[in-house]
Amino acid sequence: MSSESFRQFPARNRLRCTFFINFHKMNSILKAAIRLNGIRTVLHPVKNLVSVSRPQNQILAARNLWYMTSIQSQKLSAIHSNLCSCGCGSRKGVHTKAEKELVEFLTEEILAERKAQKVKTIPTEIQGFTASLNGAEVTLTKKTDSELIKITFNVNNSVDTDAEPEVNENLDKPEIGELKSKPSFKVDLVRGDNTISVLCSFVPPSEQEDGYNDSFGIDELSIYSGEWNENVYSVSGEVLDSYLYDLILNYLEEKGLTNEFVDKLSEYSTAYEHSAYIGLLEGLSKFVAGK
Fold it and tell me: Among 208, 191, 185, which Cα is nearest to 266's?
């Protein structure tokens, strides 16, 4: 009987068929094993049998085998029936209805998010900048002979939820555009004890002026010596002279902060934010499941 045809039987018929198949297999094994010396000691359940070839002894052997198999099946069935339905492996009654539903949802959600994850391993470098990760904060650094360029941003609340996802209605399974992380970021240009600090943010396509396609803009500008503190003066990008504003953008571009680099920064932030989100789901699932 093939495995495919066997699976087509109802559960009760499969159990009955399995018993008779196992019985005939065991009967053949017993007949072969009786030829060995000391078989009565090895086969303890049927050690009082004179010959397994006699019909009454075959019935007794089968009865013993059936009893042992039945007891083991009942134990396995009892263990399985006592397991929690949420898949945590705990015994029934450990979790409330809300906990079970939450764990079941999180299990499916984690699988779906991992399937949609485009970047499995977060890179340690982006266009010459070395990446350092600390929780939700990302630091990109590049050192030259004259200065240190440091870019810092935080992926918390950085996902662009205002943008409308693009949907191709001509496809059988329309693809929904992914959410993108576009965090504000700070650029520090450090020379010795002096630092120029420029706070930047992404410019929405709808706010980009005609003839200008800058991916980011200047929110704030400051310069200070030593460590930054609240007494450091800063000026808003909105009140900067327009020509000075453009010159600072050009200056940053020469340092490597081009539109292309900032787009790469957004891709990096998106991948890291997605990874952090999956980690949050996994942590929540383990906490609720009590693992």
Answer: 185
* β-bridge partners, 173: none
Helix (H/G/I), strand (E/B), else coil: 123 = coil
Q: Which of 1-15, 182-196, 199-213, 237-251 has the lowest mean pLDDT?
A: 1-15
CA distance 181 to 135: 16
Closest CA to 190 of 228, 244, 234: 228
Angle between helices 11-33 and 55-81 (to 10 degrees): 130
Q: Is 270 left (phi over 0), alpha (psi -120 to 50) or beta?
A: alpha
- When computed from its CA atoms, the radius of gyration of the chain, rounded to whole angstroms, is 35
pTM of the full predicted structure?
Answer: 0.66
pLDDT of 265 over the 80 cut? yes
Of residues 153 and 43, which shows the higher confidence score? 153
In this structure, are strands 185-191 and 194-202 parallel, antiparallel, or unpaired? antiparallel
User: H or E segment at 275?
Assistant: helix 259-289
Calculate mean pLDDT across residues 243-262.
96
Residue 256 identity = G
Spatial strand order in the sheet of 194-202: 125-126, 129-134, 137-143, 148-154, 185-191, 194-202, 216-225, 234-236
Token reading at 117 = 């994850």
- At residue 161, the pLDDT reads 66
Helices (H) and strands (E) in the chain, counts: 7, 8
Distance CA 240, CA 248 (A): 10
Q: How many CB atoms lie within 10 A of CB 194?
A: 12
Per-residue pLDDT tens over the stretch 116-152: 999 989 999 999 999 999 999 999 999 988 999 999 9
* Strand segments (E) across 3-55: none
Which residue has tokens 């990096």? 268
**Contact (CB, 8 A) for 119 and 271:** yes
